[in-house]
Specification:
The complex is a heterodimer of chains A (84) and B (211). Chain A has 84 residues and is mainly α. Chain A is 73% helix and 0% strand. The chains are: A mainly alpha (84), B mainly alpha (211). Bound molecules: zinc ion (ZN).
């Protein structure tokens, strides 16, 4: 594959997920990185894509409510014993 | 992926005990999975009380329906589906789900396939803790606008940091289909975050990103 085969559009729509996931053949990865080095808009796009990922990772709830396990256990067992 | 298989083997051992009516086995299952189920439900409901109730519903379904689980399959995939269903049935009771068309969020190109340059305050902003927290609050709202299949994909991969192959398994779609959903969802969130980062704050005046 020549460097020209990767257009910005293909880089963003077809290759970016696999590139970020590390699931990309070595030669394609090299072409893609060549493109990134020579195409400022795509590099900006990649940075935005990564900043999006970093932002999303902050959404994970930091802690579960206290005694959730006990509440779940009590709820299920009381419901099911009643039914028996 | 030995650790993965060990986890499933040990899940299946618990499943067998629960099928025999062993309450202690169920207790261990609750200890093992309640935090993950809660987090998954929180992604759909974004409210701790609702997520807590959905978690209870999910374990009630687990206890009642464990007989229908085929233990040649991975337990967590089955149970995560149960958990998502529990969360979505609460979400439906709470409010109608309105979703956007993702077509509008695919980046635009010039005729030669080159992207129009969009420079973003948001990339640097995401490095600053206060701004990043503010962006994350907005991102949480944007998740509500995604069609559920896309939200599930992006929540599990990017928020929960699950492996894409595992998420594809939970959603019962191919890995390629999962990656396509994931990418569309990310493009949507990216675009919305850019809009937020570029917009002036509510009080008027120009928004400044810390240097
Ligand atoms: Zn480019």
């Amino acid at each position: 594959m020549t460097h020209d085969a990767i257009t910005c559009k293909r880089l963003i729509l077809e290759y970016l997920v696999d590139y970020e996931d590390g699931a990309m053949p070595e030669d394609v990865r090299r072409d893609l990185e060549w493109h990134l080095e020579h195409c400022p808009p795509c590099l900006v796009f990649l940075k935005e894509y990564r900043a999006t990922g970093r932002t999303l990772r902050m959404l994970k709830p930091k802690d579960v409510p206290k005694n959730l396990a006990e509440a779940v256990w009590g709820f299920v067992i009381s419901r099911c014993r009643k039914e028996e | 992926m030995a650790a993965h298989e060990d986890q499933n083997a040990s899940d299946l051992e618990l499943v067998r005990r629960i099928k025999r009516g062993d309450e202690q086995g169920f207790r261990e299952m609750v200890d093992r999975y309640h935090a993950r189920v809660y987090s998954l439900a929180y992604g759909v409901l974004r409210n701790s009380e609702d997520a807590e109730e959905a978690t209870q519903d999910a374990f009630l379904t687990l206890y009642r329906k464990i007989g229908t689980f085929d233990d040649s399959k991975k337990f967590f995939s089955w149970f995560y589906r149960v958990a998502l269903n529990a969360a979505y049935s609460r979400a439906r009771r709470r409010k109608p789900i309105t979703t956007v068309s993702l077509e509008d969020y695919v980046p635009r190109y010039r005729d030669d396939g080159q992207a129009s340059p969009e420079f973003a305050a948001f990339v640097d902003g995401a490095e600053d803790e206060a701004i990043a927290r503010d962006l994350a609050e907005h991102a949480a709202e944007f998740m509500d606008e995604l069609p559920p299949p896309y939200r599930d994909a992006i929540w599990m991969v990017d928020v929960e940091e699950m492996k894409p192959a595992d998420v594809a398994d939970v959603l019962e779609i191919s890995l390629a289909a999962l990656k396509s959903r994931l990418h569309r969802a990310r493009l949507f969130v990216r675009q919305r975050l850019l809009e937020v980062a570029a917009a002036p704050p509510a009080g008027g005046g120009e928004r400044r990103v810390a240097p």
